Amino acid sequence: EIVLTQSPATLSLSPGERATLSCRASQSISSSLAWYQQKPGQAPRLLIFDASNSATGIPARFSGSGSGTDFTLTISSLEPEDFAVYYCQQRYNWPITFGQGTRLEIK
Amino acid sequence: EVQLVESGGGLIQPGGSLRLSCVASGFTVSSNDMNWVRQAPGKGLEWVSVIYSDGSTYYTDSVKGRFTISRDSSKNTLYLQINSLRAEDTAVYYCARSITIFGVIRNYFDSWGQGSLVTVSS
Known about the structure:
Chain A is mainly β.
C-alpha cells in the first residue's frame, strides 16, 4: 500500500498570505495525485488532479506541482473561504489511498 | 446538475448489517465508475470500494468479504451492503463518482454525496 504523508499537520496563516502544502508518497506514483478541500460538515471537493490540472470551477489561486514522490499544493493568496482541511490522494496503485490531511487555519 | 444523495445509515449493533443507497441524478451511474469512501469521526478519508462501468468491483482489504458494492441501473442508484459490522466501521460513508477526463475514467472523485453516518455500537 502506498502511504501518503502530508506536512505540516496544521498550517496557520493569514488571509492574503501564500500557502504551501506538501504530500510525499512512499514510492513513486508518477503524476497520479489529486488534492481535495474539505470544510466542516461537507464532502470533499476535488481541486487538482494528475498533480497539476485544475478541476472544473476551481479558482486560479490554487495550483499543484510535483511528480514521483513529492507534491505541492499552493494557494497563492488566501481567501477567508480557503481555511479548511486539505487531502492528497493517489490512484497509481491499489488500494487508492489518501494522506492524513493538512488543516489550514486562520492565524 | 450532478447530484448524489445517500441514505440508509444509522445506529447498528456489532455484527449487524445494513445497506447504504446513493441515488444519482444528472448522469448515469452504470456509465461511470462509482466509489464508496468513508471517514471515521474526526479522522481522514479512506477509500472503501469501486464498481467500474463494466461491472467489476474492488475493495479495500479491511472490508473484503463483508462489504458488497452494487448498482441498479433502472433506479440509477449505487448500493453498499455492509455485513458483520465492527466498531471500526463507524464512519460517514460517501458515494463518489470517478472523474472522466477526455473520455477516460480516472480514479479521482469529482462528485460526492453529502454522506451517511453509520454508527456501530451496542
